[in-house]
Structures are given as C-alpha cells and as structure tokens.
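Bug #77: duplicate submission created two jobs. Keeping one. Sequence:
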Amino acid sequence: MPRLTAMVISSSVWLLWSSPMVRAQEGTALVTPARVRVVAPPLVPTPTIATATGHRADSLVLQVSRSSTMVVPVASIQSLEISQGKRRKTATGALVGALVGGAATALFLSGFCSDPDSACQADEVARAVVIIAVPPTVLGALVGAVIWTERWDRLPLERLDLRNRGTPILRMGLRLPL
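Kept job's structure:
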C-alpha cells in the first residue's frame, strides 16, 4: 500500500509539473551574452541575428556587428529567439545514405538471388551489403558532417524577465478554470 501511495503522489506531481498551465507560469530569463534572432520594427524590421550583450529593465543591448551596437526597447520587440547552438547533420546524412544503400542492396539481391543458378548464401549477402550499402552510408555521413544547422527557441515576450540580470528564475502557480 505505501508503494501505491508513493506512485500516486509521484504521478500526480509529474502530471502537475508537465501541465502546460504550470509551465506557462515560468519566468524566462535572458542570460547575456546570448546569440539572439530579433524582430523589432522600426529599428529591426527583418529577422536579425545579433548578440545580446546586456539589458536594462525596458530594453535590450544588441551587438549586430563588431562595430555596431543598438539599444532596442522591449516594447517594440515582436519576436525574440535564442540560439541553442549549431549542430552537424552527420547522423541524418548517414541515415539517408543507409536507406539509399539498403534499397540498392535489396534491389541487387532480389535480382541476384532470384536466379536459380546462383547460390545466394550469407557470404554473398554480406559482401553485397559491404560493397553496395556501406559506401552511400559513409558518403551520407560525410555530407551531413559539413552541413550545419542552428536551432532556435522562441522566448515568450510576455514571460521575459529582464529585471534579474541573468539569474534564472522560476515562477510556479496553478490556474484552474471555474
């Protein structure tokens, strides 16, 4: 019985914590310096990548280039995203190459093994996989290794907290519809 009680309590806490209503209460702190993508007309009318070097209670300090710094009022910001880093696509490339190589190997083996004169045994299958499937997999991984993508997370402006000078905060609450 104590085990069941502990399981019910932990499940309830997990459900409460993962609830969108609870997560919507979190305050989002912008820790500087940070690579950001911002849209704030009329100063920044198109998505611009910059480094947030500081902030005040009502504005962000952005370094757009080595010699260009601008102060953008928070009230004018329409969109603010923070970079989660650049990543290579090696695994994706290898997966695509493996799929292409696997399809080519299957096509070859279906034709090779359907011939009654050929002894289609494990050594022929293994040789076909090594000769046909492995090179596209390696090539796909190499192509993926030179492709970089950057992942962006949107910072909700209504929850953006610039007062804390970069110290992460968490606000919790529960809203129940009546």
